[in-house]
Specification:
The chain is an alpha+beta fold. Helix content is 33%, strand content 31%. It is built from three helices and eleven strands; from the N terminus they run αββββββαββββαβ. It has helices spanning 2-35, 108-120, 180-200, and strands spanning 54-56, 63-64, 66-68, 72-75, 86-90, 95-103, 126-136, 141-150, 156-161, 166-174, 202-203. The strands form three sheets. Strands 4-5-6-10-9-8-7 form a seven-stranded antiparallel sheet, with helices on both faces. It has a two-stranded antiparallel ribbon with strand order 1-3. A two-stranded antiparallel sheet has the order 2-11. Strand 8 and strand 9 (156-161) form a beta hairpin. The radius of gyration is 32 Å and the shape is globular. The N and C termini lie far apart (117 Å). The relative contact order is 0.15.
Length: 204
């Protein structure tokens, strides 16, 4: 009888020890899960965009177009600028659409090749470059649009011409470190304005 009591005492003691070990393991695992939680994905600031309204350009240039009411037309006065070069500044986003104009003189093929080469200079950092042909027979405007994906300095470029007298090359720039994911909302918003410019372009 004495031995049986001893055995029973040991079994009870062991059960208590096992229970303590289980509780310790459960607490340890629960505590570890708190510290090893999955990190939240990186977020970006929410951007408030203005309402899209457009106005006609009134500059005495060989070309006319519509541009956003929240943008500013500033003639390009850099050292390399030429007559009728223009910046459409979207100051709210530190962005601009740079336009360089050329009068044609048996140099259309050369200007088209140069525009193509300048767009494809971004190949190193671009994930893809999509070309779109633009045709507006009513206004005699023809050209190519280059949508450049990836962390590049210029996410959209284009050239437009009437094939006889006029040639315009355009480039969209944002004054910020190129990060396509964070700048995507601004790019998408500005692309609508660029396409509106292209679709409303006419020659004087």
């Amino acid at each position: 009888m004495k031995y049986w009591k001893l055995i029973k005492y040991i079994l009870v003691k062991r059960k208590f020890q096992v229970l303590l070990v289980i509780c310790f393991v459960v607490l340890f695992v629960a505590n570890s899960c708190k510290h090893n939680s999955t990190p939240k994905p990186r977020g970006y600031f929410r951007i408030e965009f203005p309402e899209k309204t457009y106005q006609h350009s009134t500059l005495n240039y060989p070309y006319h177009f519509e541009y956003p009411s929240y943008a500013e037309l500033v003639p390009d006065q850099t050292e390399l600028s030429e007559p009728y070069w223009l910046n459409i500044n979207i100051n709210a986003f530190n962005a601009k659409i740079h336009l360089s104009y050329k009068a044609l003189s048996n140099n259309l093929a050369q200007l088209v090749d140069e525009s193509h080469e300048l767009a494809y200079k971004h190949t190193i950092k671009a994930s893809s470059i999509n070309e779109k042909i633009f045709i507006n027979e009513k206004e005699n405007v023809f050209g190519t649009i280059y949508e450049i994906k990836g962390n590049t300095a210029s996410p959209l470029q284009f050239h437009l011409t009437d094939s006889i007298n006029h040639f315009i090359r355009g480039s969209f720039y944002i004054s910020a470190i190129p990060n396509y994911d964070s700048l995507r909302p601004i790019i998408d918003f500005a692309n609508q304005d660029i396409y509106h410019f292209i679709e409303t372009l006419s020659w004087k």
